[in-house]
Amino acid sequence: MIIISGTVSLDPSKADAFHVALEALVTATRAEEGNVSYGFYVDPLEAGTYRIFEEWADQAALDAHMGADHMAAFMGQMGDFGVTGIELHSYQASNKTKFM
């Protein structure tokens, strides 16, 4: 399993437009084969900062996602949101067990 986590920061005044774009992206991505989970979550302490968490079955699924039309459309909109920073990290996980 591949895990992607990190943050994206943007102009807080653009949050409503960002949420509209996210709705389309998240809906399409969660329907992709090999997607285990996918989400952007508002950071309650940093205005305009979103925490990203994704789980993918394998590299092929992640590669397909990165080449998907809905991902290209979303990336094409990123300049509209006043993005000030993106930091994402990829992790290889050998197993997943329930914690709670």
Automatic annotation (TrEMBL):
Pfam families (alphabetical): ABM
Alphabetically ordered keywords of this record: Monooxygenase, Oxidoreductase
Keyword Oxidoreductase: yes
Domain ABM: 2-91
GO molecular function list: monooxygenase activity
PROSITE patterns: ABM
UniProt protein name: Putative Antibiotic biosynthesis monooxygenase
Organism: Candidatus Neomicrothrix parvicella RN1
